[in-house]
């Protein structure tokens, strides 16, 4: 099953509820497939998809995820598959670039980044759908007997991740940002967001990708936050979250 050794499975499980899950899941998929990006979301018919995971090798995955959630989702062929899947049912489908009829969607999310196709795993939990997509730079091998098992494992992990990060009503970085705003109102909005992402477990690279800035800029914002608050260590920011 794509070289899923016990230690790799443990690594995925350990990352549930943290920003590291997308990175580790993509790394596992790349062991056997030409996968360069993944994107997962939850959504219901007629509603805007809510991104759950996003990570890619070119640093633009967050931007594509936002474009998909805001408007491209209505032109995605997976929408039809979701609609015909019964509650409690699952699916796996492949969408090739040529199947995308909307030109701007095809260009922005397939042709421009060099994606040949995406493999999508989905599960319908009542009216709510969960979809996990892996983007490939070339078509997957024809003989992929282990793909459904891999998809089922990843979907199970994704569902647990989704429930954990939304258990308190909003994703962990959002909750931390709200707590920082209460404890340290002098912080700027960007300083709060950077600190919240880092406190939630994101690396400087991951936080930068999420915000569309460099890792060096992330660290600069954190230093400014600490200086503004007179803190000698970033770890002291936790005091405003825990107390």
Description:
The protein folds into two domains: 6-165, Transcription factor LuxR-like, autoinducer-binding domain (Beta-Lactamase, 2-Layer Sandwich); 172-242, Orthogonal Bundle (Arc Repressor Mutant, subunit A), CATH 1.10.10. 47% of the residues lie in helices and 17% in strands. It has helices at residues 6-14, 20-29, 61-70, 78-84, 103-111, 147-165, 172-183, 189-199, 204-211, 215-229, 239-242; strands at 35-43, 50-56, 90-96, 117-125, 128-136. A hairpin with a 2-residue loop joins strand 4 and strand 5. The longest helix is centred in the middle third of the chain and has 19 residues, at 147-165. The radius of gyration is 19 Å and the shape is globular. The mean pLDDT is 86.
Key features of this structure:
Arc Repressor Mutant, subunit A, alpha+beta, 47% helix, 17% strand
Alpha-beta content class: alpha+beta
- Report strand order across the widest sheet: 2-1-5-4-3
pLDDT < 50 runs, ≥5 residues: none
Care to count the β-strands?
5
Radius of gyration: 19 Å
Number of continuous helical runs? 11
Helix content: 40-55%
Straight-line distance between termini: 45 Å
Principal-axes geometry comes out as: globular
Number of domains: 2
Order of helices and strands: HHEEHHEHEEHHHHHH
CATH structural fold name of the largest domain: Beta-Lactamase
The overall average pLDDT, rounded, is: 86
The CATH superfamily of the largest domain is known as Transcription factor LuxR-like, autoinducer-binding domain
């Amino acid at each position: 099953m794509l070289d899923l050794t016990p230690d790799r499975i443990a690594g995925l499980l350990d990352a549930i509820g943290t920003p590291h899950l997308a990175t580790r899941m993509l790394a596992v998929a790349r062991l056997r497939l030409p996968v360069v990006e993944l994107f997962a979301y939850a959504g219901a018919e007629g509603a805007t998809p809510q991104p759950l995971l996003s990570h890619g090798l070119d640093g633009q995955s967050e931007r594509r995820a936002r474009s998909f959630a805001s408007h491209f989702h209505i032109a995605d062929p997976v929408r039809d598959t979701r609609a015909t899947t019964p509650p409690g049912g699952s699916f796996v489908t492949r969408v090739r670039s040529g199947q995308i009829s909307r030109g701007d969607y095809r260009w922005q999310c397939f042709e421009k980044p060099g994606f040949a196709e995406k493999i999508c795993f989905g599960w319908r939990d009542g009216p709510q759908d969960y979809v996990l997509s892996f983007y490939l730079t070339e078509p997957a091998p024809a003989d992929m007997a282990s793909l459904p098992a891999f998809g089922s494992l990843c979907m199970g992990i994704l569902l647990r991740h989704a429930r954990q990060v939304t258990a308190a009503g909003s994703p962990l970085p959002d909750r931390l940002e709200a707590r920082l705003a209460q404890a340290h109102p002098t912080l700027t909005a960007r300083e709060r967001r950077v600190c919240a992402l880092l406190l939630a477990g994101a690396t400087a690279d991951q936080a930068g990708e999420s915000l569309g800035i460099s890792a060096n800029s992330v660290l600069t914002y954190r230093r400014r936050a600490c200086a503004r608050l007179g803190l000698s260590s970033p770890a002291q920011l936790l005091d405003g979250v825990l107390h």
